[in-house]
C-alpha cells in the first residue's frame, strides 16, 4: 500500500469513529425520559438501563405541606397557668370530632389542655385517655377545628438512612411549627427510661433519628420523605457529650393501642405477683436480708411473693434471681417489665431463675396487675 493510501485510511477511520460517537450520544439523549414525582425528586429512566435512578432536589417542602396543618402545639395548664408544652398531630376524624395523638408526659397532671393550630387559633381539647408506659395520649377536639389530618404510614418499611423530618414546638410558643430534618439513624432501639423519677424502670423500643429534637417536640410526628407519619417523638438523650439522638415510638405500636386510648379504658397488664429488686441494689437487698454471690451480676431478685398470685403457685422463693422470661434475657427490672408486658392476663410463661447458683425453671400463669 502506498504511503498516501495509508494516510487516507487513517483519516477515514478517525472520521468514522467521531461520527459513530456523535450518533450514539444522540440516541442516548433521546431515549432518556425525566419525570418529577410528588415529593419533588427527579426520576430518570433510561430505556437502555435496568432500574430507575432517583435524584432528590434537596427539598422537603412538598412533604412538609402534607402534614404541617395537622400538627398542633399543646399547652398543659395547671393552676391556671401553662405548666409545660409539647406537640401533637391529628391522626383521624369522624363525623363530629378530630383526634390528636401526643405523649402521656405532655398532658400528665393537666387540669386543662389548649391546642394551638398552625394558623395560631387556640382551642381547648378533651383528654380521652393516656398511658404512662406507652407514653401515649389521645385528645379530642371538634371536627370544625381540624384544618388537616396527617397520613399514617409505616416504620417497618423504612430503611436506615431514609430521610425523615419532624414538626413541633421546641422551647415553647415562640418556635412553634419548627421543621427539622435528618435521617432514620436506628430501628428497634431499646432505651431505658425512668417513670418513677428515681430509677430506670422501663424499656421502650423506639426509632432513632438525628433530626433535631428539643423540649416541646414531644408528641409531634416523625415523618418520612413522602409526608407519612412513621413515629411519635417521645424522648432524646440529654448528655453534654451527645448530639442529635432523638427517639420516636413506632407508629404501628401506637396505633395498636389507639382504641383503648380513645375509649379511656386503662391498658390491662399482667403481673407475676412478686416484689423485686435489681441485683445491683446491694444495700436494699441487704436490708431485705438477701445476700447474693459476687458472680451474679444481672437479673431480678425476688423479695416477696404476693398471696393468690401466679408466683405463689410456682416454685419461686425469696432470694431467687430471675434471669429469663420465655428464654428472653432479663438484666434488670426494666427489662423484666418489657418482656412481661408482651403477654396477656391468663397466659402461662416460663421463668428461668438462679437458686444457690443452680439454674432452674418454673411456670407461672399471669394474673391481672392492680395498681393499689
Task: Write a structural description.
The chain has about 375 residues and is of the alpha+beta class. Among the domains are: about 5-55, no CATH class; about 160-170 and about 180-250, Thrombin, subunit H; about 270-370, PDZ domain (Pdz3 Domain). About 20% of the residues lie in helices and about 40% in strands. It has seven helices and 24 strands. The chain has helices at about 5-30, 60-70, 105, 250-255, 260-265, 280-285, 335-340, and strands at about 30-35, 40-45, 55, 70-80, 80-95, 95-100, 110-115, 120-130, 135-140, 150, 165-170, 180-195, 200-210, 220-225, 230-235, 245-250, 270, 275-280, 300-305, 320-325, 330, 350-355, 360-365, 365-370. The protein is elongated, with a radius of gyration of 29 Å.
Topology of this protein?
Layout: H1 3-30, E1 32-36, E2 42-46, E3 53-55, H2 61-68, E4 71-78, E5 81-93, E6 97-102, H3 104-107, E7 112-116, E8 122-131, E9 136-142, E10 151-152, E11 163-168, E12 178-193, E13 202-209, E14 221-224, E15 228-236, E16 246-250, H4 251-256, H5 258-263, E17 270-271, E18 274-278, H6 282-287, E19 300-305, E20 321-325, E21 328-329, H7 333-340, E22 348-355, E23 358-365, E24 367-368
Parallel strand pairs: 10-15
Antiparallel strand pairs: 1-2, 2-3, 4-5, 4-7, 5-6, 6-9, 7-8, 8-9, 11-12, 11-14, 12-13, 13-16, 14-15, 15-16, 17-24, 18-19, 19-20, 20-21, 20-22, 22-23
Features:
Thrombin, subunit H; Pdz3 Domain; 372 residues; alpha+beta; six-stranded antiparallel beta barrel; six-stranded antiparallel barrel; 24 strands; 18% helix
Amino acid at each position: 500500500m502506498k504511503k498516501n493510501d495509508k494516510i487516507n485510511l487513517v483519516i477515514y477511520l478517525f472520521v468514522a469513529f467521531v461520527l459513530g460517537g456523535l450518533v450514539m450520544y444522540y440516541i442516548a439523549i433521546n431515549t432518556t425520559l425525566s419525570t418529577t414525582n410528588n415529593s419533588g425528586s427527579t426520576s430518570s429512566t433510561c430505556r437502555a438501563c435496568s432500574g430507575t435512578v432517583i435524584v432528590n432536589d434537596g427539598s422537603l417542602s412538598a412533604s412538609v405541606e402534607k402534614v404541617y396543618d395537622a400538627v398542633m402545639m399543646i399547652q398543659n395548664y395547671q393552676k391556671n397557668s401553662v405548666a409545660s408544652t409539647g406537640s401533637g398531630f391529628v391522626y383521624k376524624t369522624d363525623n363530629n370530632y378530630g383526634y390528636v395523638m401526643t405523649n402521656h408526659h405532655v398532658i400528665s397532671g393537666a387540669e386543662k389542655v389548649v391546642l394551638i393550630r398552625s394558623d395560631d387559633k387556640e382551642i381547648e381539647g378533651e383528654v380521652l385517655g393516656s398511658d404512662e408506659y406507652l407514653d401515649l395520649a389521645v385528645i379530642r377536639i371538634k371536627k370544625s377545628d381540624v384544618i388537616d389530618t396527617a397520613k399514617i404510614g409505616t416504620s417497618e418499611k423504612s430503611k436506615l438512612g431514609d430521610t425523615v423530618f419532624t414538626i413541633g414546638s421546641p422551647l415553647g410558643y415562640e418556635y412553634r411549627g419548627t421543621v427539622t430534618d435528618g435521617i432514620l439513624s436506628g430501628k428497634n432501639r431499646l432505651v431505658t427510661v425512668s417513670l418513677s423519677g428515681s430509677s430506670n424502670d422501663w424499656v421502650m423500643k423506639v426509632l432513632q433519628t438525628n433530626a433535631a429534637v428539643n423540649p416541646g417536640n414531644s408528641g409531634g410526628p416523625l415523618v418520612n420523605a413522602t409526608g407519612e407519619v412513621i413515629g411519635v417523638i417521645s424522648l432524646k438523650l440529654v448528655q453534654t457529650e451527645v448530639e442529635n439522638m432523638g427517639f420516636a415510638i413506632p407508629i404501628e405500636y401506637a396505633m395498636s393501642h389507639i382504641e383503648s386510648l380513645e375509649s379511656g379504658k386503662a391498658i390491662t397488664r399482667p403481673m407475676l405477683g412478686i416484689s423485686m429488686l435489681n441485683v445491683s441494689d446491694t444495700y436494699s437487698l441487704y436490708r431485705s436480708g438477701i445476700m447474693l454471690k459476687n458472680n451474679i451480676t444481672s437479673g431480678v431478685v425476688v423479695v416477696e411473693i404476693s398471696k393468690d398470685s401466679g408466683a405463689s403457685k410456682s416454685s419461686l422463693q425469696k432470694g431467687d434471681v430471675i434471669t429469663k422470661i420465655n428464654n428472653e434475657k432479663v438484666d434488670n427490672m426494666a427489662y423484666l417489665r418489657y418482656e412481661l408486658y408482651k403477654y396477656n392476663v391468663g397466659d402461662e410463661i416460663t421463668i428461668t431463675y438462679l437458686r444457690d447458683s443452680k439454674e432452674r425453671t418454673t411456670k407461672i400463669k399471669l394474673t391481672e396487675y392492680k395498681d393499689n
